[in-house]
Write a structure and sequence with these properties.
37% of the residues lie in helices and 30% in strands. The protein has 239 residues and is an alpha/beta fold. An eight-stranded parallel barrel has the order 1-4-5-6-7-10-11-12, surrounded by six helices. Helix 1 runs parallel beside helix 3. The longest helix has 11 residues. It starts with a strand and ends with a helix.
C-alpha cells in the first residue's frame, strides 16, 4: 500500500483545510518545495499535491509553487486542482508530473476523462470527493445529485489508474476516516481506490492496510502528519 503525504496549495503556501472550507485554512509551511523535500527525505515514495486555488478557479493557480516542488524532489508527484483542459494536462505531464487527478471535470464531462486516459494511459486518476455520499465539485463548493459510487462505476472501463475517494466531512477534522463507505466502494470497483480524509493515527493506516485485498491501494496523509499525530517513520513501516 502506498502512502501519499499531501501538500495543499493556497496562495503559494502549504495549508490544510478543515472539511474543505477555504476560510478555515491553517498554514503549515511558507515553502511547499521545502516541505516536499522533507517528505522525500522521510522515505515516502509518492507525493500528493492539490492546487486549491486552481480547483476554485477552474485553471492552475499555484504554478510556481508546483514547479518549485518538481525541481526539488525526485519522487513521483500526483497533481489535482483545476485540470480541466487537455493542453494544460499535457503541459503538466511534460513538466514532470507523474499522474494527474481529475475531479470536477469527471462529474461534469466523463467523456473528457476517457479521452485523457486514452491519450495518457496510466497517468490519470479520478478524484471523487463526497459530502453525504454525493459528489462535490468546484473545490468542494458545490454538491451534485450524483452518488459517489455511481460516478466511480462510470470509469471502470476508461483506463483510470486509481479512484481517490475523500469523505469531505472527515477531511482535516482528525476524527478518523469513513472506513465503511470507502471500503465498500473499493469492493464494488476493479479500479484501485486511494483513501483520503480523516486518517489521524497509525491504527487508521493499519486498518486500510488490512483492506488491500478489498481494493484499497493507498492512503493520503494530511493534517495528522503536520500535527505530529502520525510519525512518518511509523507510517512507512506499516505500509
Amino acid at each position: 500500500m502506498i502512502l501519499y503525504p499531501a501538500i495543499d496549495l493556497k496562495e503559494g503556501k502549504c495549508v490544510r483545510l478543515l472539511r474543505g472550507d477555504m476560510a478555515q485554512a491553517t498554514v503549515f509551511s511558507e515553502s511547499p518545495a521545502a516541505q516536499a523535500e522533507m517528505f522525500e527525505q522521510a522515505g515516502f515514495s509518492w507525493l500528493h499535491v492539490v492546487d486549491l486555488d486552481g480547483a476554485f478557479q477552474g485553471k492552475p493557480a499555484n504554478v510556481h509553487a508546483i514547479k518549485d516542488i518538481l525541481a526539488r524532489v525526485k519522487m513521483p508527484v500526483q497533481l489535482g486542482g483545476g485540470l480541466r483542459n487537455i493542453d494544460v494536462i499535457a503541459d503538466w505531464l511534460n513538466a514532470g508530473i507523474s499522474r494527474v487527478i481529475l475531479g470536477t471535470v469527471a462529474q461534469k464531462n466523463p467523456l473528457f476523462v476517457k479521452e485523457v486516459c486514452r491519450q495518457f494511459p496510466d497517468q490519470v486518476a479520478v478524484g471523487i470527493d463526497a459530502r453525504g455520499g454525493l459528489v462535490a465539485t468546484d473545490g468542494w463548493a458545490k454538491t451534485s445529485e450524483t452518488p459517489a459510487a455511481e460516478l466511480a462505476l462510470r470509469f471502470e472501463d476508461a483506463g483510470v489508474c486509481a479512484i481517490i475517494y475523500t469523505d469531505i466531512a472527515r477531511d482535516g477534522a482528525m476524527e478518523g476516516p469513513n472506513f465503511a463507505e470507502t471500503i465498500t466502494l473499493a469492493e464494488r470497483l476493479s479500479t484501485p481506490v486511494i483513501a483520503s480524509g480523516g486518517i489521524s493515527s497509525c491504527e487508521d493506516i493499519a486498518r486500510y492496510k488490512a483492506s488491500e485485498e478489498q481494493g484499497i491501494a493507498g492512503c493520503i496523509l494530511g493534517r495528522a502528519l503536520y500535527d505530529g499525530a502520525i510519525k512518518a517513520e511509523d507510517a512507512i513501516k506499516l505500509s
